[in-house]
Amino acid sequence: MNNPIEVNDLSYQYENNSPVLLKKVNLTVSKGEILAIVGLSGIGKSTLCYCLSGIIPHVYGGVMAGDVLLNGTNTKKMTLPQIATTLGIVFQNPDNQLFSPSVEDEIAFGPENLCVPQGEIKTRINEVLATVGMESFRHAGPHHLSGGQKQLIALASVLSLKPDIIIYDEAMSQIDAAGKVMIKEMLLKLKSEGKTAVMVEHDFDNLDIADRVMMLKNGTLVPYEGALT
Ligand SMILES: Nc1ncnc2c1ncn2[C@@H]1O[C@H](COP(=O)(O)OP(=O)(O)OP(=O)(O)O)[C@@H](O)[C@H]1O
Ligand SMILES: [Mg+2]
What we know:
Blueprint: E1 5-13, E2 22-29, E3 34-38, H1 45-52, H2 55-58, E4 63-70, E5 73-74, H3 80-86, E6 87-90, H4 103-113, H5 118-131, H6 147-159, E7 165-169, H7 177-192, E8 196-200, E9 212-217, E10 220-223
Parallel strand pairs: 3-8, 3-9, 6-7, 7-8
Antiparallel strand pairs: 1-2, 1-4, 4-5, 9-10
The structure holds adenosine-5'-triphosphate and magnesium ion.
Magnesium ion is lined by residues 45-46, 92, 169-170.
C-alpha cells in the first residue's frame, strides 16, 4: 500500500535568484502517523507545507525539483480540487483561509464545491462545529471572531472535507489552553481512525502527541534532538 505522503528529493526556491529553502528533502509519512516539524522562524516550514499540499507548484510558481506523492499519486498530476479530497491544510494565518460571510457558509464552501449533497453538508456542519466547540457561532461573521476562534473555524472548514491527511501549520498559536487540549485530543482521535497529520509547531508543549519530530534546518529534514540550531 502507498504511504499517505512520500517526498522525493524535493528542492524549492520562490524565484530563480531567491534562497533555496528546500534542498533535496526526502520524507515518508506513514498512515496514522502524527509527524511534527519544528525549525527556526523563516526557515521554510510553511513553504514545505505548501509543497505537501500542492499549493506549490499549482498556486505559487517558483523553481521546484523533485516530487510529492499523496497516496502514491504525484501532486503535479492532481488538480487542487482532487488534492482537497485527500489532504486538508490549516494555514498559519486564519485570515488567509476565511472569506465567507458566515461560519456556516465557510464550512459549506469546500463540500459544496465538491458537489456533496445538501443534506450531507448540513450534517457535516453540525459535526465539525461540535468537534471544535463552536456550535453557537454558526451564524457569526468569521472576520468578527477572535484569532483563536478563527483558527477553530479554519480547522472546522478543513475537517468538513473529511481529508485522510491534515497539514496543520502552527494552527493552534492563538487558541487558549483548553482549546489546545481539545484539538490535540481530536488529532489523536483522527489518528485512531487511520488519518495522518503533519503539524508544524513552535510550541513544544504541543509535541507530546507527535509520533516523530523532525527539524527543518539548512533546507533538509533531520531528527529533532532538543535544539533548533
Ligand atoms: N510567496 C513568497 N514569495 C517569496 N518569498 C516567500 C514567500 N513566502 C515566504 N517567502 C520567504 O521564504 C522564507 C521561508 O518562509 P516560510 O514562511 O516558509 O518560513 P517558516 O519557517 O514557515 O517561518 P515562520 O516560523 O515564521 O512561520 C522566508 O524568507 C519568507 O520571507
Ligand atoms: Mg510558517
